[in-house]
Predict the structure.
Amino acid sequence: MRSLVVALAAALLAFGAACPPAAGPDAGPTLDAGPDAGPDAGVHEGPLVLVSPAEAVDLDPDPGVVRVQLRAHRRDQHVGGRVRAGYAYNSQSPGPTLRLSRGQRLIVELQNDLDDPTTLHWHGVAVPWAMDGALWQMAPVAPGESFTYDFVVEQAGTFWYHPHFDTAHQVDHGLYGALIVEDPTEPVADDELVVLFDDLGEELDDGGVRSHLAGRVAANGLVGAVYESPAPRRVRLRAVNVSNERYLALAWPGLRHIASDQGLLPVVQEPSSVLLGPGDRSEFELLVGPQAFDVTTLPWAPAGAGTGDAEPLFTVESGGGPAPAPIAWPTSDDEVSPTPGAIDVLYVLSGDPVTHRWLINGETWPDSTLQSVPLGEISYIAVRNVSPTEHPFHLHGHAFEVVTVDGVPPPYRTIEDTVNVPVQAEVVLRLLADNPGEWMAHCHILSHAEGGMMTVLRVVEPGEAE
Ligand code: C2O
Ligand code: CU
Ligand code: CU
């Protein structure tokens, strides 16, 4: 197994020098570059065109309801000139983007045509517990079976869906898609680009991971693709990091950060880079003007900033004219909530990359002591990282506010469902526990979650919380 993967990686390195197969503007984003893909593919005629994943068709005429069908099935992936057995939804990886407006009801009919059980989890969406697709106390959807997910979405933002059964393996092999919830009061950009970034890793027998792309990151399945614009434009970029392991530190000239996990920021930010851990999302306004530029990821190591060159993720072509004025995004004067006097729940993250044992409060899932918070009340959760690597901490069924990082409030209010916990740092979260259930809380580096860094937070009637 190991030597096969090493051989694959070597082949990819070789392929990196060759030309990728051409794709026309209508080519859907997919890992499958078609029958011509491979080391013997013909002459490359131009850059790969980056487009958003095709969207799912709404089968319900009722304007209040979006009903879609997703079929999970095997599908070979042509990656870096090689074929590997992969998976897809409706023949796509990334799967179809699901788009709805806040307040609409989403019905997803999942057909499992895999050889293994699977589920759908709605990452970042406060769904009823029975719709969460997490395995905890719920049976997965068996091969050949189907299941209908049905819930109303009240939050606007960029979310994603993925299996929560054999998660590292199924996500790594292509099962993921974007879920976009629009707020009709927000300004409309000239174009929207949905990009799911994936490191296309593969688990090794020793629990480690080696990238299929020799360390490169695919954007909607493509490496080195170009976003083309016939004219200057303001583009709403919705970025999702679906990598099992890989952190992205997104950077480009004139970066405008407009939203994080749970929708628009109080005020547009213009930092030099934005960190996107596994599971994380962010939205940006790309101003397509006279200059082409690369959307890049800065070097990032498991313990923070790395060294080396920025890696281009995709190129934004020139719009052939002067840059347009940016959109006036709505602002809010919501402030960061006060620093709490006391903590209700403490999660201490420990472990190491040598043993691949990753722990919360000294325990590995499922041998975990479950903590509870009272339904309908505010609780404060401290997540303290005493391990040598960072962890993107994710809680199901809720959004939370980050109130301090190492005791310091963030510069502006951020509502998240996945938050990076730096090495030797403590992040304090403010949670309105308004969704009853027993919610998974885990590191979204999927090998860490499977190595034990997972627990359940019970949201229970006030009298039942300890
Ligand atoms: Cu992206 Cu437990 O989930
Ligand atoms: Cu989740
Ligand atoms: Cu982790």
Q: What stands out?
A: The radius of gyration is 21 Å.
